[in-house]
Design a protein that fits this description.
It holds the Pfam family Rv2743c. The protein is built from eight helices and no strands. By secondary structure, the protein is mainly alpha-helical.
Amino acid sequence: MADERTRYFRRLGRLRRSARRWSVLAGGLGGAAAVLTPYAGLGLPDAAWAGAAGSAVALAAWRWIDLRALAARPAPPALDPAEAAARSRARLVAAVERLPVGSGVLAEVRRVRSRVALRGTTAGQQWARLDRASLTLAGMAPRLTGLAEPAVREAATADRSLRDLAERVASVERALRLAPTDARAPLAEAHRTLTAQLESGVAAYERLVVAAAGYLAEDARPEPTHPAADRLTEATDLLHGVASALAELRSGGVGLRAPTR
């Protein structure tokens, strides 16, 4: 969406072009009416020419009045370059998100950008491990239904929390490099504590992903025999039994005759 200053000048330009068009049209219609109107009096066609010319003159006058009123107002101040750049990025992101694969592309771009920003810090390695585990879990998430759904939601919350913790670890580490000697001890202790929390959190997340894979493996493990095979075996045994019974009846009833009256 354009800012207020841009909209102001666009509207000013539209009014100026409209006023010029109606002025030209009013001049043409007025000249035609003056030439075509007979001296003996006005007929119906002449009245139409005169009415059109008068309407065009009135519209041209209104456009010029609107233009002067708008031009008399001060133009809105220009946007700060940083704010203008932020709005441009927001418009670009919104346009990409409307594409079929836009959300996935933006998520990948954000992930790569965050990973590059943490490169060279202690949190970078943990971030890479978290990325691998998160992508693995995302591939399994559509099949983690039923009892596994709460675990998936908890994993999403933990993922956001761990990424925020990784950024804090990186910030403290950068500040530690710039801190004077007498201020390094508390920062170093805080960095060690945060790093330990991050490592344990990422390890717990990886264990959750392994457990989710085990759940899928158990959920999809086939039975020793398929139910259809069991039913076919039962039908086969039944047919064998019927065939055996018929054979016994045939062999036992060969000498039988129908009773005579």
